[in-house]
Every structure is written in C-alpha cells, then in structure tokens.
C-alpha cells in the first residue's frame, strides 16, 4: 500500500493563481502527471507549461493542461486520482467539498489559515465517503521511484510544495507536521534517499494524522525505516507512539520541535500551542521514548540516530 | 485568540445564558463606581487571560466602598503568572448552592466537537477526570451533525443536574453550542455553572454562569469582521501587535537572542537550539522571540522582521536560520543586506547577526553576505553552530559566565 500509485493522474484546484501556477510547473517538472486544473470562471481554457520533461526523461517539451469548471468535470474527463488544493482560506471549504463530491480519492490541501470548523466538516465528510484528505496547512507529499523505474517511465508523484531536488529514491519514509523541518531532515539524510515523505500539516485538525501516515508507510514494502517530525500541541505524537509500540514493524526515530515554547502561545502553526500544561515537547518526547522510539534533541542528532539504525539494517 | 472574561460574558449574554450583573473597569475610580452601582457585597475579578487567578489573589469579595477602593488598587497593580492586570470585572456576589462544569471544545484527537460536563464542578476538571472519570460526562458531536434540544436534555440528565435544574441546564447547553458554532469558537467553557439562590426558597434557585472562558479561531476572523469588537488596547504586547499588522508570526519571549527563520517548525527548532546552547551560561541565555517570515522572504519583509526583532531592547544578537526549500537563500541574503543597509541609514544600532543558510542557492546566498563585508554579519555552517555563536555573542555582552 502507498499513498498514491506512480504516474497517477492529478488535478490542481486553484491552478490559475500565482501559487497554483508556480507549483504546478514545479510538480510537472518533478514528473507528476498533472492532467487538469479547476477554476469555475476559466473552464474550457488551457494553460501551457514549458520545459516539462518527457516520460522517458530524455527530452523536454511544452505541456498543455486543460482547465475544467468543476471538479466533477475534471474527474470525468481525466479520472484524476488526486487533487492538490491551493485556493485561499475562505474558499477552501467549498473546494474540499467539491473534490469530495467528485469522489477524488486523495485530496492534498496546501492552504494555510482555514477555519478549524471548515476543516472539521470536510474531514468528517471525507471520512464518511472513504476519501483521504492530507493537510491542510501542509507541504504535501512525495513518492519517489528508482532510476530503473524512471527509465521505464515509472515516476514518483510530487503533490504540493516539497522541493523535488533535495533527495532521490531510497528506503526511508518521513511523516512531519512541518515543511521546512521536513526539508532539513531530508537534506541531512539525502545519502539514504526516500521512498515517501508526507507533511500532515500544522493545524489542530488534519485529514491524515501522523499515526495514519505512519500506518501507510509501515505497509509500504519500499520503506525500511521512518522519521517522525512532531511539534508542540495536541497529542498526535502520543497516540502515534502507542500505536507504533504494538504495530510498527520498522524502526522509527523522532524529533519534536518547541521545547522552549511558552504555555498558551501559538508558535506560527495554528495547532502549535501548549495549553493547560498539555501538548509539551517534553511530554511527547517521553511518550515516544516510553514506546521504544528514539528521539533526537535536534534535527542533526535525529539524523544521526537514523544513520545508526540504517547501518544495522 | 483567548477572550477576557468580560468579553466572553458578552457572547453568553447575547444567547440568554444567565450571568450575574457585572461592569468592566480599567481604573480604580471606575471600579469603585461600578461597585457602588452593583451594590455590596460584590466581587472584583482581575481580567487576565490565564487560569488560576483566584489562587493568585486576583479575585476578592468587597463589602463597602473603602474595601472596593483598597482591593481594586491592589488587584490593578498585580501581575498574575506574568500577565499584568489592566482591567477588573466587578460582579454581584452570588450565594452558591452547587457548582457544575460545562465546556464545548474542538477535540483534536477525535476530530470532532466535545461537550464535557460534570456535576462535581468548582475545582479543576482535569483533576476530576483523573480521579473520578465516572463523574465526567462527554458527548462527541460529529461536525456533520447538529446538537439539538433532545441531545442537550439527555446530556443534562446524564450529568446529574438536580431534577428541577435539568431543563434549564439543557437550555444553557444548547445556547453554549450556538455561541460555539456561530462564533467559530474553539472553546466555550463555563466554570462554574453555579446553582444560586436562597437555600429555603425553591423559587429563587436557578443556574448561572459565574465564570466563562472562550477562545476564538483566529483563522475565522475574516468572517467575523476581524473580531474587531474584541480588539483591546490593553494586555497586548506592543511588538506582537506591530508584527501581526505586518502579517508576521512573532511571539515575544523573555531572552536576549533574537530568532528569525522560515517555517514555523524550523523556527521552533531554532529557539530550542538557542535555549540549548544558552544552558551553558550563568545566568542562562535564552531566545528573545519567535519569528517566522514564511515562504519567499522579500527584502522588505526581512527589513521589517529585523526591525521588529532589534527594537526589543533585550536583544543582544540575532540568529537567522533559513532552509531554502522553494525560498531562495540568494534572495534572502539580498533581503538581509538591504535590510541592514536600511537600518543603518535609519540610525538603528545593529547588533551582531549570525546567519545559517542551507538548501536552495545557499552557496550563492552566503557569497552575497561575504561580499557585502558587513562586520556584524557572521556566517555559520550548521544550525547548531549558528545558535551557539549567537548565544556566545549575547553572553559576552551580558557578561554571563560560562559554566
């Protein structure tokens, strides 16, 4: 099991905006099979993206991407298996609902600043329909394929804003609440490479929890060991620890950010807040260690812990 | 965003949740006048956005004008758990027969809404939940569903309200739900929801919200007129307010090393690195702030960020930590140089800045910093060594001894 199959057709909601354009071009260059965009006012138009690598990776050419007025039309025309959402916060709820109703099985929400009530509604609706939301307020997810696979046209999928050039294919998996810390750890472990990385997002309610993401990586035969990046707020790391203790078959190391964060202050991410003494970094670290997961004091120590594990595998 | 008690009361009052008569006062004169209007005995309550204010001496009953003057002077001069008291709520004293606890909140784990109540109110609900979980009733509400009068009545019965109170309790629960949903709240808590009245007079007994805590979802401000009705000029950190206006995530801390970075996680990690390195000194060196410049930092944004961080007189050095994902370190470097030049032109005294770049165009970024030959810009190879250098600089200026 994996988040998404290689070469899966993908659409982008909010493709015609600045963020949407920039990151669609990036995702295409990373080899993602983007087959359409959605914009209610621009249905029927096409957008042209230059210098997009061919399926065999040998040359480049321009790629025309059609814009559909609705998600349902896009789904019908392309059989999209995922949608990446870049629309502004106030329109995010209707964008998510539209994607759910179009029965797109994976919805990756990059947008930061969505009201928690809107997310709660959409996550509940998606759960009811058996649809996975990743995010919101996340960098998205990536899967990677080996050189041999790439040479035979099997390409990993880059959904969101994770830079494609930090790492190549390898045997690690990563689950993170933070974008830049994801890049930092990927970069420190680039010599091992990654099979999949997922940013679950920094909001109080997210569509895919750290535990759910780890479950998928545990079932993915390409992943040999996992890195967890957590931060203050909530108890997702504690829940993950308890699950991992009984079910995880692969080694896991973790890093938690925010030891020096004061009580009651939101540290950038909407969900990153210690309240009533709960959600502290120290509490998360202890819960993880109690369940046998090694926790690094900083990103480089965490990478070092992973190296030590990889040497024994 | 946490509301003050007097603001939370407004929202409850709009929905007919019974609350005692009360008047907000920000000066001693206003407080005395309010107490005279309400009548004696009455209660003076410090308005701070932190719990346990009663234990800290921030809630006092007064019996006449002299006491009102003496106590309001006292409370208005207090600092409770680091929060300076700048306002008072004067409320009528109630004779309490029993105390309940009720709250509605966003449940992060179950990704729904959690109605929580106990008849064993008055103390810390966390303690009751730990020692007597059987006294705490919870109802999870799916975000696709509604909380209606039937559910509220069932809940009220389960909580164990005294028979005669069940229907009023159900009404209050339902109104709390409306306050929660209509205001995009993440928490509506009434503690205590008290039964008040004269012991021998059944007709006088009723439920009343004696204290309330409401947190609103800042992300929903766009559909509530920016919560402008709750904007107060007091109780805010000046620098935090300035930064918020510029759209920057800035949290003022109490140390000496300013921290700027891109991405909330990396900045949290950076303040941890500073705190870790600062352990080696006596007194300890700590981070002065958290500042996330987000993706794609322009020169202007960098200048504004440096300006805010350095206008904190406590700041003795600054640690800039950038991992270029989509953001180019080259652009950030240009931003830093432009910002520093601008600040020098404005006559700002610059403290030393330690920069660590990694990722997208990091080498190009470092070259730009090198070529600018600014004496007070230092470059470090790793996040940890950069934090250490910034801490060492601050320690030198503050004459802290190395342990």
Automatic annotation (TrEMBL), chain A:
Its EC number is 6.2.1.5. GO terms for biological process: tricarboxylic acid cycle. Gene3D superfamilies: NAD(P)-binding Rossmann-like Domain, Succinyl-CoA synthetase domains. Keywords: Ligase, Nucleotide-binding, Tricarboxylic acid cycle. GO terms for molecular function: nucleotide binding; succinate-CoA ligase (ADP-forming) activity; succinate-CoA ligase (GDP-forming) activity. It is an enzyme of class 6 (ligase). It comes from the Bacteria. SMART domains: CoA_binding (SM00881). Pfam families: CoA_binding (PF02629), Ligase_CoA (PF00549). Coiled coil: none annotated. The active site is at residue 269. The keyword Transcription does not apply. Residues 3-114 form the CoA-binding domain. One of its GO terms (cellular component) is cytosol. NCBIfam families: PRK05678.1 (NF004230). This is Succinate--CoA ligase subunit alpha.
Automatic annotation (TrEMBL), chain B:
Substrate binds at residues 262, 325-327. ATP binds at residues 45, 94, 99. Pathway: Carbohydrate metabolism; tricarboxylic acid cycle; succinate from succinyl-CoA (ligase route): step 1/1. Binds 1 Mg(2+) ion per subunit. InterPro entries: ATP-grasp (IPR011761), ATP-grasp_succ-CoA_synth-type (IPR013650), ATP_grasp_subdomain_1 (IPR013815), SUCC_ACL_C (IPR005811), Succ_CoA_ligase-like_bsu (IPR005809), Succinyl-CoA_synth-like (IPR016102). It holds the Pfam family Ligase_CoA. Keywords: ATP-binding, Ligase, Magnesium, Metal-binding, Nucleotide-binding, Tricarboxylic acid cycle. Its cofactor is Mg(2+). Residues 9-216 form the ATP-grasp domain. Mg(2+) binds at residues 191, 211. It catalyses: succinate + ATP + CoA = succinyl-CoA + ADP + phosphate; GTP + succinate + CoA = succinyl-CoA + GDP + phosphate. GO terms for biological process: succinyl-CoA metabolic process; tricarboxylic acid cycle. The keyword Iron does not apply. Its EC number is 6.2.1.5. Succinyl-CoA synthetase functions in the citric acid cycle (TCA), coupling the hydrolysis of succinyl-CoA to the synthesis of either ATP or GTP and thus represents the only step of substrate-level phosphorylation in the TCA. The beta subunit provides nucleotide specificity of the enzyme and binds the substrate succinate, while the binding sites for coenzyme A and phosphate are found in the alpha subunit. NCBIfam families: PRK00696.1 (NF001913). Heterotetramer of two alpha and two beta subunits. This is Succinate--CoA ligase [ADP-forming] subunit beta. The gene is sucC.
